[in-house]
Design a protein that fits this description.
This protein has 287 residues and is of the alpha/beta class. Helices cover 30% and strands 8% of the residues. It binds iron/sulfur cluster (SF4) (3 copies).
């Protein structure tokens, strides 16, 4: 089990050191929320603010989300757990951040809990990685042992459905969407400004929470996340009406892995699946 207090101490020390030395001007970490169960993303910008950093089992938000909020060239440090580090890798691959501008503070994390329910994070709903895939400093002992289960096991219930049943399932789920956009806001890969759905000239989709509008928003977003989603589960955790968005993202991720042999964000030296081409690539998706 992760020693949360030790991670918090190490995070504060590293943040202070990096800000004091001028190596970075921002450290993206977690700070106090309304109570212990709701820590929030926090940007420390002065050495003394490092003492406000917290870390506990409820620190689930993916802080890679905030790397693209700062002007290009800003020197930043970011605290990342397993799936979060995959998001940093995708941002590096997509040229949204430069490796020399960021310091990655890796957190080996097990035993995280849901802010909404207080229960253990269901490993089957995330990528299940305990250790970051990329870091400059690891703030604790690497967690040994293989992931408990396949990240795609949970979608067997979709596999068991016929096409019509799947369509009915998603129709019912997406009809509940209230278009708060928390899913987009929480997602490190949704950094477009403006997002397609906010554009008015041309207007790509209906912004009101009608079923057709919801379908347009979600299917387009699912498509935009193909080969890029790192399975952190943040979109689903952020959804106030509990729509299981990550089932769709996992489905797409499995397709991508099977067709192109690539899992998003695992290897910074790889080109992202959707911008790379190999002659042996599968073309079954064209059929
Ligand atoms: S789509 Fe959801 S699971 Fe995938 S990277 Fe974005 S927030 Fe994480
Ligand atoms: S939904 Fe698509 S356009 Fe909108 S922010 Fe996400 S990736 Fe960008
Ligand atoms: S967070 Fe949930 S309710 Fe809000 S836009 Fe996304 S799917 Fe819809």
């Amino acid at each position: 089990m992760t020693d949360m207090k030790e991670i918090e101490k190490r995070l504060r020390e590293e943040a202070k050191k990096l800000l004091e030395s001028g190596r970075v001007s921002v450290v993206l970490a977690y700070g106090k929320g309304c109570d212990e169960r709701h820590p929030m993303p926090f940007a420390a910008m002065k050495p003394e603010e490092a003492d406000e950093i917290v870390f506990n089992e409820y620190c689930t938000p993916n802080l890679a989300r905030y790397l693209t909020k700062y002007p290009a060239g800003t020197k930043m440090a970011v605290a990342v757990k397993g799936c979060d580090s995959r998001a940093v890798v995708v941002l590096l691959q997509e040229g949204k951040v430069n490796r020399e501008d960021i310091v990655i503070l890796g957190i080996p994390a097990a035993g995280m809990k849901e802010q909404k329910t207080g229960k253990d994070v269901d490993a089957s709903l995330t990528c299940g990685l305990a250790n970051p895939v990329l870091y400059d400093v690891l703030l604790g002992q690497e967690i040994k042992g293989a992931a408990a289960e396949s990240p795609y096991g949970i979608i067997s219930k979709l596999d068991a459905m016929s096409g019509d049943e799947r369509w009915e399932f998603w129709k019912k789920e997406l009809a509940r969407c209230i278009r708060c956009y928390a899913c987009r806001k929480a997602c490190p890969m949704c950094y477009c400004d403006p997002c397609f759905i906010d554009q008015t000239k041309p207007q790509w989709g209906d912004k009101t929470p009608t079923f057709d509008g919801n379908l347009m928003y979600h299917l387009t977003r699912f498509y935009h996340l193909a080969g890029r989603c790192v399975d952190c589960g943040e979109c689903t955790r952020a959804c106030p009406v509990d729509i299981p968005l990550n089932l769709f993202h996992k489905y797409m991720a499995r397709e991508c892995e099977e067709m192109f042999g690539q899992k998003a964000g695992m290897d910074p030296s790889q080109k992202p699946a959707m911008v790379d081409f190999k002659v042996e690539d599968s073309d079954t998706w064209l059929e």
